Amino acid sequence: MRGQPDILINTPEIELWPHGLLRARSNHDARALSRARHVLRRKRDGRYLAVDLREGVLPLVHRLMHEPGIDAALDALELHPARRRPGIERVGELPLDRLQERLDQLGIDGDYAERTGLALVAEPDWLAFAGFDRYRRPLWLHVNAARAWKHLQAAALRDSVVLEAISGYRSHDYQLGIFERKLARGLGVDEILAVNAAPGYSEHHSGLALDIGTPGELPAEETFEQTPAFDWLTANAGGYGFAMSYPRDNPHGIVYEPWHWRWNPADAAH
């Protein structure tokens, strides 16, 4: 797929990463990744499961065919329309059938959506490469949000304002991991919910939202509102379809997040 747009093919439990965007974690991985067209990566913990070579799929774990979700991942590798026709605009959605399992693990009851007014958010079945974030990690977004982000970033730079992506798309499994890590540090679920949406309810799942920062400023801090970058976003982001999702005293009970912006196609003028 050299010379074609980089896309992340997404399945419920496994992501299919394009060549060259993942770092090898061992000499064995390095040899395999150097020849790979795609890498099959487990969403729950980031484990590399297999690589797609021209001659076939090379397992990187024992008993690959017993891996949950492997059949769907292999089917997507061969059949996904974004793989066969890169640049296709249609983006599908993954099913939400594993969501309740995640919420049950956290002890989040069924009226969470009613209390917060947050909607369930499905993951896209593929995402576009939107450059790198502050930490040189690949940034994945919905293809239209990726295009809008690049235009927004370039426009800011023309005004001598540097915008950095802190994070973009996050899977349901990734969001669950945030909760698990904070619970392990002794925080309660209610404390975490004041800062992070429950798995399945984060705008990051859609690939339409990203956290934005600027050099010299700590990520995801309220002090971002005191920067020229925030002033520029407040004045200009709406013209590119971006809006801040969680202003002060928002009805969802989420803390003020001046760094969190979501792209809405209905608002885009560029």
Automatic annotation (TrEMBL):
Domain D-alanyl-D-alanine carboxypeptidase-like core: 140-265
Name of a matching Pfam family: VanY
Tree of life domain: Bacteria
Database matches in SUPFAM superfamilies: Hedgehog/DD-peptidase
Alphabetized InterPro entries for the sequence: DD-CPase-like, VanY-like_core_dom, VanY/YodJ_core_dom, Zn_M74/Hedgehog-like
Protein name: M15 family metallopeptidase
